[in-house]
TrEMBL record:
Keywords, ordered alphabetically: Signal
Pfam families hit by this protein: SBP_bac_1 (PF01547)
Signal peptide: 1-21
Native source species: Oceanobacillus aidingensis
Protein name according to UniProt: Extracellular solute-binding protein
Amino acid sequence: MKKNKKILFLLCISFFSVLVACSKDEKEAVGGSEDALENLNQEGMPIVEEEITIDVFAGKAASAADDWNDVPVLNEYEKMTNIDMNWNQVPVDGLEEKRNLALASGDLPDLFYGSYMPNSDLYKYGEQGIFIPLNDLIDEYAPNIKAYLEKYPEIKQGIAFPDGNIYAIPRLRDPESPTSLMDDKPWINQEILDETGMDNPETTDEFYEYLKAAKELSVDGNEVIPFSSVSMDRLFHWLTGAFGVSNKGILHPSIDEDPETGELRFYRTADEYKQLLEYMNKLYTEGLIEQNIYSIEVDHFLANGAEGKYAAMNFFNPKDYFGEEVGGRYIPGNALEGPNGDKLFTSVISPVNSLGHFSITNVNENPEATIRWIDYFWSDEGAKMFFMGLEGETYEETSDGPELTEEITNNPNGLTVQEALAQYIINPGGGHPVIENPEYSTAPEFQPEDLENAENMAPYLIEEPWPFFFYEEEEQAALDSLGADIQKYVGEMEAQFVTGETSFDEWDNYVKTLEEMGLDEYMEIQNEALKRYEEGQ
């Protein structure tokens, strides 16, 4: 009996030792080794005394530099930090497949950068320990990110998962910059407007009358196309606010806040949405919307735009896409007042619009140095370097602040500003885990025309647009099936109502079908997610 007790005692000790060892390993997986910490400088440059290498899985946009292992800004930053980032770039077109393969195979990089990791994957692999929590690392080693999150607690709330952990550094839009928060923007062709003898439309009725008048005109021998963009969704972006729907921004394409009750609403069954569809049906069936809008190719849109055919559009800076001469004809469109007195512009994105852009994995032996590497680009000096490049090469300091050099703004090889800068920096293009800094960024949305448009629209921009919500695993599974089916049906019926293929006499059947598809369950999931967001969990 004594022998059995002794064996049992030894087994318990062994089991306890295993538990302690596991806990220790888990703790060490979150932080670097003692050697790594001894090599780390907690502030200043270099970040580490002895050079280290970090293997990076990086998403690459078509407009970005071809090889990030040989980009002047990153080369200079490597000298400053003593950190050699080994960039393994994956074009955005094949990003999802290769990202999933890396996660499934267990052949992990030290860091996923600009990889557009979905929130569901961040949460799943974060709970599994594959992505390490960044909360403590930010508190101790990322003073610039920490200060920003303290300044904007709603952003911190928007990047923390239901378990309280932060598993990624996001790409952020400046919450105080209207042009940064706007997605596409409305534009009116001033020359066509002058020919109609009308003022810039301010109501949906005036907009309809302008499009009707424009349809009878011609430009440079071409028939005018009254209203277009690269998709029907972008045309809706201009008009939803005039009918009081989509009042929490475009990241949630079917839910918003009921203006009467303040509760969550599936606006695709609301009377106001039906009114919007009836208005769009009138525009489409009278030929005031480009008739191939549901299948339009970007090249087709750009070609028509370059010929000055469009009387109105909702898109990005026309000078960038149609050229200086034709693009210069466009002026900002107005936020339109609708039939019920609503006057909002809802094509607005939460500052936290894309989260999964900087996730440290559990194989990374230098997480503290890694978080310090990105934190510098959240500082003023770091942002200047990230967006404008190298002093003396791409910009010069002046009494009015940093200004791009002549080689960039008037490139001898005929390159645009973006193309010339792309030889020195890795922005624009891609999901960089930084703040789009209006003081230094050369992105199109900070050009004078866009700033004017945003200033014109600022009084009517919706406040506090919702970010993407976080869902528990079971909720996400339901949304992947139930939610996908509902969104597919909504999209199909929207097109049928607008084109006249389905009569509005079928509206009640449309609503009933959605209810039979499980709309109540879908809304329960969204309500729970909204509740978590509002509670800051």
